[in-house]
Amino acid sequence: MFTFNANDLSAKTHYKILTGSIIPRPVAFVTTKSADSEVVNAAPFSYFSIVSATPPLISISIQRAGGNQKDTARHAIRTGELVVHISTEPIVEEMNKTAATLPSEESELDHTSLTLAPSTYVSVPGIAEASIRMECTLYDHIEIKDDDGAVTADLLLAKVAGYHLSPEVYDNSTGYLDAEAIQPISRLAGNDYSKLGELFTLKRPE
């Protein structure tokens, strides 16, 4: 067993250990809109999870680059709106293209074959090809700081205002979603992703 004092490790080492051990991670594919223009930003984030069902809250942590806030965080904070999509096999190649670093005034979607769909509850459009999308409003924004007080990440808590679920993945009669039909992809470490593997069931103890 290797034992490390966290205070002795570099940020790069922390990144390697955390992203290599907390796996698999679902990938949020997020669209936001600039407060100053109609440019729609799209980007994937794997620091993503559920926070609460009452109210319906999800979390996305967006790391800063050199202390600079990323477009997704900046837009969501200023407008208070975002659309979160579940990343899946059918769209993963196009989703990956949006991870490119581009000028703020340029939409990543212009470099993909993905198309926009109007939203019902927020002004930010979603991705038409996504089988699951959640229209959200910003519930809270928490600045994550290092030991020196420098902000290193923006933690967004987003409240779901509405869901759009493809009939291929959602059973309206039972209210359940079909994991295999969704074909979710998850993030591992480095450039690696994984698909949904073997499923098994364990009942909780009474």
TrEMBL record:
InterPro entries: Flavin_Rdtase-like_dom, Split_barrel_FMN-bd. Belongs to the flavoredoxin family. This is Flavin reductase like domain-containing protein. One of its GO terms (molecular function) is FMN binding. Residues 20-178 form the Flavin reductase like domain. Its cofactor is FMN. It comes from the Bacteria. Coiled coil: none annotated. It comes from Terribacillus saccharophilus. Gene3D superfamilies: Electron Transport, Fmn-binding Protein, Chain A. Keywords: Flavoprotein, FMN.
